[in-house]
Amino acid sequence: MLHRLKEKWNVSWTRFTLIFLTFALGGSACARLGNWLLSFVLTEKNAWYWIIYVPLITILWPLCVLTISIPLGQFRFFTNYLSRMGNRIFGKQSTKTKSIAIFASGTGTNAKKIIDHFKESSVARVGLIVCNNPNAGVLNIAADNHIPVVMVNRKSFLTDTVCLDELTLHKIDLVVLAGFLWMIPKYLIEAYPNKIINIHPALLPKFGGKGMYGENVHKAVIEAGEKESGITIHYVDEHYDNGDIIFQAKCEVKYGDSVSTLAQRIHALEHEHFPKVIEQIIKG
Ligand code: GRF
């Protein structure tokens, strides 16, 4: 049961222990404080005692838990936790945490930034990694963060619905392509209309299309003598780098830039903006 709770909160065992400690210390501090405050107005534990005690500790509990969470470094977790609880109790519109699937087959630096960004968020979390490369760095990132992985091969990805079944099973709301080189098949696009987004390391519509990925893009930008490049986040349709543009950010192409210096600048832009744009999309 503890294991399931840990998975649900998506935290390491160390953090899980600290969270548990916060619950325990907060609960006991709350009971003691409630007793102490009541001792000023009531001397014996009669019916009045309990009538006042229950609502009193209901108010004190979040305050105590939040206070204890500060020195234990768990304040963000508990503010999210209490806000979710409040929404449930007071029947606020459902704020179900959305689930993101990241499709990646490379190093996964963007995937890591997205995972970290949503780690303690009540807006969304990364619930699945889809990968087509058994040597991809993103697989280690998934393992470190206890995120399930689905490995796909081209034939099954294009023809079967294995991938879609997994997305459904993991209740995925948004698909994020972060370094996934295969075209997304029609059945997935139809199943997730306007719910699949991609990041491209240049300013589309220029320098996009088949074969325009990784270093090829930066090489083409430099060879074309462009003065600026950037990133494009866009919806995915059945053509490479073609869907509606959601966001772009620019950077300079400096005199003497190599593919690698430009790639570094572009990566920095991606890491800065991609998680925030995803959050905006989810919040609608
Ligand atoms: C990024 O540059 C992205 O624009 C492109 O693939 C690259 C993935 O990089 N679609 P990483 O694996 O996230 O480092």
Descriptive account of the structure:
With 284 residues, this protein is an alpha/beta fold. It folds into 2 domains: 2-89, no CATH class; 98-283, Rossmann fold, CATH 3.40.50.170. Helix content is 50%, strand content 15%. The chain contains 11 helices and 7 strands. It has helices spanning 2-9, 13-38, 47-69, 75-89, 109-118, 138-144, 154-159, 162-169, 186-191, 215-223, 259-283, and strands at 98-103, 124-131, 149-151, 174-177, 196-200, 228-235, 245-252. The protein has a 7-stranded mixed sheet with strand order 3-2-1-4-5-6-7, sandwiched between helices. Helix 3 (47-69) packs across helix 4 and helix 10 (215-223) packs across helix 11. The longest helix has 26 residues, at 13-38. It is elongated and about 85 Å long. The model has no long low-confidence stretch (mean pLDDT 91). 5-O-phosphono-beta-D-ribofuranosylamine (GRF) binds next to helix 5 and strand 5.
Keywords, separated by commas or semicolons:
284 residues; seven-stranded mixed sheet; binds 5-O-phosphono-beta-D-ribofuranosylamine; alpha/beta
Compute the number of strand runs.
Answer: 7
The assigned structural class equals alpha/beta
In CATH's first tier, which class of the largest domain applies? Alpha Beta
Number of domains: 2
| Unreliable residue stretches | none
Bound compounds, each kind once, are:
5-O-phosphono-beta-D-ribofuranosylamine
The CATH homologous superfamily of the largest domain: Formyl transferase, N-terminal domain
Oligomer: single chain
- What is the string of SSEs from the N terminus onward? HHHHEHEHEHHEHEHEEH
> Which CATH architecture of the largest domain?
3-Layer(aba) Sandwich
Could you give the order of strands across the largest sheet? 3-2-1-4-5-6-7
Give the count of helical stretches: 11
Q: Output the radius of gyration.
A: 24 Å
Alpha-carbon distance between the two ends: 34 Å
Shape: elongated
The major β-sheet equals:
7 strands, mixed
Mean pLDDT: 91
Percent of residues in beta strands?
A: 5-15%
CATH topology of the largest domain: Rossmann fold
State the share of residues found in helices, binned by percent: 40-55%
